[in-house]
Amino acid sequence: MTRKTTSDRDEAASSDPDEQPDPGAARAAERGIEHLTRLTGKPVQGVTSMEPIEDGWLVEIEVLEDRHIPSSADILALYEVEIDFDGNLLAYRRINRYHRGSTDIGGRSRR
After folding, report:
1. Contact at 8 Å (CB) between 60 and 44?
2. 62 has which bridge partners?
3. Which of 8, 56, 90, 93 to pair with 22, CA 20 to 30 A apart?
4. CB 75 within 8 Å of CB 63
């Protein structure tokens, strides 16, 4: 699937007067967290990145997958969540799993 960047969308906006209004990054992140929490039942640690795409927003969310004692042994996961302009869930996928405190775990840089 090809994703358009902000500059691609800006160019398209001038030729498409019916383009959906953007709900904003903060609202898209909130909706992504709500959808992911409802689907996985796992506690969210935070949003690690956001990127505007053709149909809305791509939100990267860090989740606590398995809690351990000590907490440094916890297993975290990184999910990509696609949210449309109305705040609806388009898709989600787990893209990485790792121990808390691991370095160089970002999802966006590996593409």
Report:
1. no
2. 46, 78
3. 93
4. no
Cβ-Cβ contacts under 8 Å for 99 (sequence gap 6 or more): 72, 73, 74, 75, 76
Residues in Cβ contact with 74 at an 8 Å cutoff, skipping those fewer than 6 apart: 64, 65, 66, 67, 68, 99, 100
Q: Provide the token pair at 67.
A: 């809690």
Tokens of 62: 């860090």
Distance CA 74, CA 69 (A): 8
Q: What is the DSSP code (8-state) at residue 47?
A: E
For residues 48 and 59, the answer to whether their CB atoms sit within 8 Å is no
Summarize pLDDT for 3-58 with one digit per residue, the tens.
554 445 444 444 454 555 555 889 999 999 999 999 999 999 999 999 999 999 99
Strand partners, 74: none
With beta carbons less than 8 A apart as the criterion, state whether 81 and 94 touch: no
Give alpha helix (H) positions in 1-111.
Answer: 6-15, 25-40
C-alpha 78/C-alpha 105 separation (Å) is 9
Residue 107 pLDDT: 57
